[in-house]
């Protein structure tokens, strides 16, 4: 008998565009699959010369991107993308690429991110829950501070969309914002202290 829930999420990466992606499932299956959440496992067989880059909150800039070699079928480096961690992907292929995330839905207390004061972090929903930005605080344990913002990436415009802001007065975001499973977003912690985001999600 097990309460574990497994599944998959398809994310389309448009040709010759950047896409903010985030891992929505635990491919390590609770740590039993070594390297399951490494990009070498999550992004296999993608277009040659496609790139992945993480966001460095301390530098307020992207770390040097890693490149996929079509010849060797490997990345130029490796990093871990546990559920909720985001990265910026560039699809260098002539056609759209569909990446399939496969794994276990994270349930119970799970530390998604520790976002330092007045810094940005590229993150995403740690579970395959599609909906509005409000789900982050109503269903996934995020506790925003006044002035915190969330922005999704617009690949066609090659820029971030206009951000929505958390109003402490009304305890709401200033506008709706759809966030699909597997989509990354840029979060600004405007609070005076670090925001330790811990989700406590249970499949009903």
Structure keywords:
2 helices; single chain; six-stranded antiparallel sheet; five-stranded antiparallel sheet; mainly beta
Which helices and strands appear, and what pairs or packs with what?
Layout: E1 6-13, E2 18-22, H1 39-42, E3 51-53, E4 55-56, E5 61-62, E6 66-69, E7 74-75, E8 86-90, E9 97-104, E10 108-115, E11 119-124, E12 131-132, H2 135-138, E13 149-154, E14 159-160, E15 164-167, E16 172-173, E17 178-179, E18 184-189, E19 195-201
Antiparallel strand pairs: 1-9, 2-8, 3-6, 3-8, 4-5, 6-7, 10-19, 11-18, 12-17, 13-14, 13-15, 13-18, 15-16
Task: Please describe what this structure looks like.
There is one protein chain. The protein has about 200 residues and is mainly beta. Helices cover about 5% and strands about 40% of the residues. It is built from 2 helices and 19 strands. Strands 11, 13, 14, 15, 16 and 18 form a 6-stranded antiparallel β-sheet that branches. Strands 2-8-3-6-7 form a 5-stranded antiparallel β-sheet, with no helix packed on it. The longest helix is centred in the first third of the chain and has 4 residues. The radius of gyration is 17 Å and the shape is globular.
Task: Give me the strand/helix succession.
Answer: EEHEEEEEEEEEEHEEEEEEE
Strand content: 35-45%
Helix content: under 10%
The backbone outline, from C-alpha atoms, is globular
Question: How far do the termini sit from each other?
Answer: 16 Å
Which radius of gyration do the C-alpha atoms yield? 17 Å
Q: Output the number of helix runs.
A: 2
Overall pLDDT metric: 96
Low-confidence stretches: none
E-strand count? 19
What summary fits the major beta sheet? 6 strands, antiparallel
Give me the secondary-structure category.
mainly beta
